[in-house]
Design a protein that fits this description.
By secondary structure, the chain is α+β, with helices and mostly antiparallel strands. The chain is 26% helix and 16% strand. The chain has a domain at 4-21 and 34-130.
Length: 296
């Protein structure tokens, strides 16, 4: 199998080496083995693990079995996550990357369904120790920023550089923990109150400000999906409520955010529609999340 080193295939590397050697006039050339960096080795093992882990699901859905293109796609996605960390001036530490690969193996085995297999984008979630601290900035909440490293950190909580509602410029934003019963959500310019684990931010009575409390049940008021107990989703709209997820073809004009995972509310039809994740569907069935692994 020829595999990609970063974004260059090993087979192409070998071909270029042979041509350059012959052009130099040497009678015989010994082709050197391409040297793998630590990042190359990690990305390749991660991709192999994910693609092998998806084989059973691909067969079950009668989709193409993962092949070399699956490994290439997933390796490149792992590299993208690491390059994004570089852009954030964040050190990528691969001293013990095999333990991260094993964690993904465990996540594949524990996936509750074929549509919830781990993906390279889960790297930060499953292997946070790989990523060092992001550089500390000086930007206060509400001040313009280019990236997280422009922003100062709160005493408690986290920071981000994001575009606020009704704005076009990203600003430094503090995500601060809020106690149960206290007001949550946007608190002041650039400060958002975040509820703890198994707690949601929602109005507890009609017309009340949202506060941290137990996750909301069916038809309870909500702020966003994090307000609702699974499997419910927040409908959005003028009177957002926790609802059952809508399926493809369901009317979503009064609940624009209530479409099930891998669907969105298509404005032109007012119905939930499959998200074409990887390709222009044309006359063929649209992709599903599993297609990422099974597509040849």
């Amino acid at each position: 199998m020829s595999f990609r080193l970063g974004f260059v295939t090993a087979s192409r590397f070998s071909f270029v080496t042979v041509v350059a050697c012959a052009a130099a006039g040497f009678a015989s050339c010994t082709e050197p083995e391409p040297e793998l960096t630590e990042r190359d080795a990690f990305a390749f093992e991660m991709a192999e693990t994910l693609c092998q882990g998806a084989r059973g699901c691909c067969a079950e859905r009668k989709l193409d079995l993962p092949d070399e293109s699956c490994v290439t796609r997933n390796r490149n996605e792992v590299f993208i996550v690491m390059l994004e960390a570089d852009d954030l001036k964040q050190e990528v530490v691969l001293d013990d990357w095999p333990s991260c690969v094993r964690r993904f193996e465990d996540a594949v085995a524990a996936a509750p369904s074929c549509d919830k297999l781990p993906h390279p984008s889960h790297l930060r979630l499953l292997c946070p120790e790989i990523f060092g601290d992001i550089a500390e900035g000086t930007g206060a909440p509400g001040e313009a920023c280019d990236a997280v490293y422009d922003c100062a950190s709160p005493e408690k909580g986290d920071r981000s550089c994001r575009v606020a509602a009704f704005n076009t410029v990203p600003v430094c934003t503090w995500l601060v923990p809020i106690e149960e019963g206290d007001v949550c959500g946007p608190l002041e310019s650039g400060v958002i109150g975040v509820c703890g684990e198994e707690r949601g931010c929602a109005p507890r009575s009609e017309g009340a400000q949202p506060t941290c409390g137990p996750l909301q049940n069916y038809e309870d008021p909500c702020v966003d999906n994090a307000s609702c107990r699974e499997p419910f989703v927040c409908s959005g709209g003028a009177d957002p409520r926790c609802l059952e997820p809508l399926e493809a073809g369901d009317d979503c004009t009064e609940a624009i955010y209530a479409c099930a995972r891998s669907h969105f509310c298509e404005p032109s039809t007012g119905t939930c529609t499959d998200i074409p994740l990887l390709q222009d569907c044309g006359e063929e069935p649209c992709s599903t999340p599993l297609t990422w692994f099974c597509q040849g």
